């Protein structure tokens, strides 16, 4: 087989209608006698079957088994129409099993490839297409063999989503924001999960710094200029927003190290616990948008428990942060850690950042940690379980963006080259996830 050009398969889909792009059975929920409704196999090189075990959304996906390296024997297609001047956002989710086949997006021509080495997780291919004429086009996937292909391999495919004008998905009822800064220009007018993807494309590929570089960032930028204004480390787990702090940390001198109680030292707290994304994995492990300086002992007590609202506390820090069983109205019954009110919005916006910056991989994190499983719902759009999302929305609304957050966002941009969109434009939250 030709390595760079050999074709293993072609999945074709498209849109129809004049103003609203539509795809028939793009979610592969409809099957008739073992065949995907509205899809036709015109060659014998692939077989298509329903799967309920590897599903991106809904209850079913398509299991595409590639059985040949002959490109003329692998087409699976739908023929549809587009309207001149209309713009359609196409996206498809791919799940590689062995990593010896690469999927390539096709939208009236060949586009980007998937990453076959990213096995065991869903990844997205997408393209925004503006029709030059009213005509029929083919849109879909082609599969290219990689070293190690043994003549048969399964690739799961789900959730083909064309949307006219970039307005599909999400819970928002907004109309999109206009007059955005140049950094966010490509997100203007978008709503729902299409907006989320646009923001992902803006903030992805930041310049990951080393773990030790976080100490430098803290020493230069995480100083208390909002409360006592004393130049000490601003620690969200020890800062008393309404009174005198019980203790303070001197930048550099009080880095952890070991600790036996509160006030001994400060360390690097992954507000989104790193066990949830698989450990000390780059670039998440050093992403300063969610890694804050905090008291080492309180950080240890928080462990990897979800944030939440505590009903009965088993531990309370000096500034009032609490660990304990979840409040009865939270719709969650496990142990949670509750920061003080002054920092709840900061943490909510850090979580919305994580859901967006890592939307290409976050759907695969649900099973990494039992506490992460309680928070993550296994998707890359909503990302969070209903109870947790509702709480984040409330925290975001009740604790608006402060000058401290705005300054930190600027410093983070200088440090690693990307921004938290939900600090710059808090309205993005409701445009994507609704109220």
UniProtKB/TrEMBL annotation:
Protein name per the record: CBM-cenC domain-containing protein
Single GO molecular function: hydrolase activity, acting on glycosyl bonds
Range of residues in the leader sequence: 1-21
Family the entry assigns: Belongs to the EndA/NucM nuclease family.
Domain CBM-cenC, first and last residues per copy: 21-136
One Pfam entry name: CBM_4_9
Keywords recorded for this protein, A-Z: Hydrolase, Nuclease, Signal
Superkingdom to which the source organism belongs: Bacteria
Keyword Disulfide bond applies: no
């Amino acid at each position: 087989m030709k390595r760079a050009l050999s074709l293993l398969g072609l999945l074709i889909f498209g849109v129809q209608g004049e103003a609203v792009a539509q795809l028939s059975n793009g979610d592969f929920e409809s099957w008739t006698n073992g065949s995907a409704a509205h899809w036709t196999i015109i060659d014998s090189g692939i077989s298509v079957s329903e799967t309920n075990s590897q599903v991106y959304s809904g209850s079913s996906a398509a299991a595409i088994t590639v059985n040949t390296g002959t490109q003329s024997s692998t087409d699976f297609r739908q023929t549809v129409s587009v309207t001149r001047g209309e713009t359609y956002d196409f996206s498809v989710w791919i799940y590689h099993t062995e990593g010896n086949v690469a999927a390539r997006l096709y939208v009236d021509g060949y586009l980007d490839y998937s990453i076959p080495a990213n096995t065991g997780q869903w990844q997205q291919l997408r393209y925004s297409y503006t029709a030059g004429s009213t005509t029929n086009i083919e849109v879909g996937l082609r599969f290219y063999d990689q070293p190690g292909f043994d003549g048969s391999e399964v690739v799961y495919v789900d959730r083909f989503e064309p949307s006219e004008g970039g307005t599909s998905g999400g819970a928002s009822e907004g109309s999109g924001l206009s007059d955005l800064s140049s950094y966010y220009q490509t997100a203007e007018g978008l709503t729902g999960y299409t907006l989320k993807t646009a923001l992902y494309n803006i903030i992805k590929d930041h310049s990951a710094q080393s773990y030790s570089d976080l100490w430098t960032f803290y020493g230069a930028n995480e100083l208390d200029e909002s409360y006592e204004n004393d130049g000490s480390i601003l620690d969200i787990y020890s800062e008393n927003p309404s009174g005198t702090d019980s203790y303070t940390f001197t930048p550099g001198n009080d880095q952890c190290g070991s600790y036996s109680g509160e006030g001994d030292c400060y360390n690097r707290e992954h507000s989104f616990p790193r066990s949830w994304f698989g450990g000390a994995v780059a670039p998440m492990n050093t992403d300063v948008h969610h890694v804050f300086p905090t008291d080492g002992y309180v950080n240890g007590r928080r462990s990897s428990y979800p944030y939440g609202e505590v009903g009965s506390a088993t531990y309370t820090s000096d500034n009032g942060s609490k660990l304990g069983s979840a409040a009865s109205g939270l719709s969650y019954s496990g142990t949670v850690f509750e920061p003080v009110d002054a920092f709840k919005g900061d943490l909510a916006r850090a979580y919305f950042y994580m859901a967006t910056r890592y939307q290409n991989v976050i759907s695969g994190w649900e099973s990494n940690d039992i506490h992460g499983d309680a928070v993550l719902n296994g998707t890359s759009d909503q990302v969070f379980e209903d109870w947790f999302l509702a709480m984040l929305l409330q925290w975001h609304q009740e604790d608006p963006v402060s000058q401290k957050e705005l300054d930190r966002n600027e410093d983070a941009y200088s440090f690693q080259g990307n921004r938290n969109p939900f600090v710059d434009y808090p309205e993005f939250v409701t445009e994507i996830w609704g109220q």
